[in-house]
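For the sake of transparency, this paper describes our internal protein records without simplification. The tokens are whole numbers drawn from a learned vocabulary of local backbone shapes. One such record is reproduced below, unchanged from the form in which we store it.

. . .
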Amino acid sequence: MVKYYCCAGMLKSSWDQVCVAFWQRYPNPYSNHVLTEDIIFREVTPTNCLVSRRLLTKTSRSPRWMEPYLPKQMSSSAYIIEDSIVDPQKRTMTTLTWNISHARLMSVEERCKYYINPENGSCTEIKREAWISTTIYGLSRAVQEFGLRRFKNSVTKTMKGFEYVLAKMQGETPSKTLTETATERARETALAAKEKAKDLASQAQKKQYV
């Protein structure tokens, strides 16, 4: 049994910019889980389409209930194959990714199509489809639900990473990550507390001399 999921998204950048950003999106603050990316092959077809295949290595933290089924060296990392076709005539980019690590336990295939927004040529639409399956008897539903939750979380990070890279490409200031925002707030809180402590200490000292 295969679980199917489909969603759509939009980037407020042109198709050309998104295609360039696609190859430059690692590293970014939202992709710390991506360890390596290697091009296996790349060629231009007679119809001028750019066809590529890459191997990605990512950290992959498994839930505790799944760890007994995984070899030790495979429970913390995963290998992903990414195929892509860029068609400059049709102005589309199609990608297909799937995991080759512990695929018998959980297989996730993703297909994305990037194309120009028909109503706004300066924006790019993304249609994203995913197929999640497993061969674990008796736990298929749990594995698929886990895979779907992880996939949705990954999509959110992917879109934020895209926006971050596009902003840098266009000379804009990328929006801050949650970690950066939290760190700044913590610093501000610490400074405010420090100043308040100084004021209280100063007031206490003045009272002693009154």
Notes: The longest strand covers residues 34-44. The helical segments are 15-24, 140-169, 178-209.
